[in-house]
Design a protein that fits this description.
Length: 333
């Protein structure tokens, strides 16, 4: 069986293609044994730094939290049992499955009718199995998220679906495979500004959302799948009532960033930033400018800026040339 790796998903703002550059720039500027990523997103940046003795990983989306626990903190699981379950899921006879919460809501929109029936049925089975360890359940849920991502009728997020007369059946259940971790790793599902008050690290890597697009809304289907509370859904995009609303996507973003940096306890701060500030799309315009970031970081210590050309993963209609990724490096006083 071919297993998913942590970077094998579509995710707005993913830094997967920039990992070597980020690692090399940080490594060039300090010696470190601990690494803290308070806005971990896909978790692929943390994966690059797993050689550290101490790792702190955080994201306020519950779907990402489950993925982190599955990949980085699974100790009690039977891989053969999980493979057998995956094979059972892939052998299900779709015509014998009843419609469920997932198919009733998302069929012929985000997924084909058959795929949505399968996804909802598998989620119910995971919920009902009483012979799973907590780690096995996390692995199955993370695997479901990755498998769903491969079959979704979207451009890579769930803010909207692609309007089609016919959606092909594409869903196949594949497992993620947990990593063997030697690091002391802590995994959180918290507000980054609160967590940073209580944790310290040699390096803190900061990559918050910078525009008005709320990740909780972008990935509402994955959050719905993980929580499985079956909420009432609203609007054409079939979203539940808003949760996980980030202040970094609002007018108060500069103050939240300043608060975060002031409370950061580390030797080196590395801050990722991309130049979407002049985007034609209002929702893509950054809430914090480069000048504001630089001013805030300089109050913390000597700061330099590294830049790199980068065609980032853009799931919307925004189109701009000469896109650059920036990495601020601050030696904390």
């Amino acid at each position: 069986m071919k297993f998913f790796q942590i970077h094998n998903r579509r995710y707005t703002g993913s830094k997967f293609k920039l990992l070597n550059w980020i690692y090399d720039e940080i490594n060039r500027n300090t010696k470190f044994n601990s690494f803290f990523d308070p806005f971990s997103g896909t978790g692929c940046v943390v994966h690059k730094f797993l050689s550290c003795k101490k790792i702190i990983i955080n994201d306020f989306l519950e779907s990402n939290f489950i993925i982190f626990k599955a990949f980085f903190n699974s100790k009690t699981f039977d891989l053969k049992k999980l493979i057998d379950l995956a094979n059972q899921f892939n052998s299900l006879k779709i015509n014998k499955l009843k419609d469920n919460y997932f198919s009733i809501n998302f069929s012929k929109k985000y997924f084909s009718h058959n795929d949505s029936k399968l996804i909802g049925h598998i989620r119910e089975v995971i919920n009902e199995l009483n012979n799973l360890t907590p780690d096995e359940k996390n692995i199955l849920l993370a695997s479901l998220i990755y498998s769903v991502d491969r079959s979704a009728n979207t451009v890579g997020h769930y803010d909207a679906y692609i309007i089609k007369d016919n959606i092909d059946d594409k869903f196949k259940f594949r497992l993620i495979k947990p990593y063997k971790i030697n690091s002391d790793i802590k995994i959180y599902n918290m507000d980054a500004n609160e967590l940073i008050k209580s944790e310290s690290s040699d390096v803190i890597y900061v990559d918050p959302p910078y525009n008005s697009r709320q990740y909780g809304r972008f990935y509402h289907i994955l959050e719905n799948l993980v929580k499985w509370e079956k909420p009432q859904l609203f609007g054409k995009a079939l979203k539940p009532k808003p949760t996980h609303v980030s202040e970094y996507c609002k007018i108060n973003a500069v103050n939240k960033f300043k608060e975060l940096i002031q409370n950061a306890k580390c030797k080196l701060l590395a801050v990722s930033y991309n130049n979407t500030y002049d985007s034609k799309s209002g929702s893509s315009k950054n809430k914090i400018t480069m000048e504001q970031i630089l001013e805030i970081l300089k109050s913390k210590g000597k700061t330099k800026i590294n830049k790199k050309d980068h065609n980032f993963f853009n799931a919307g209609k925004t189109n701009f040339k000469n896109h650059k990724e920036y990495l601020f490096i601050t030696q904390v006083d």
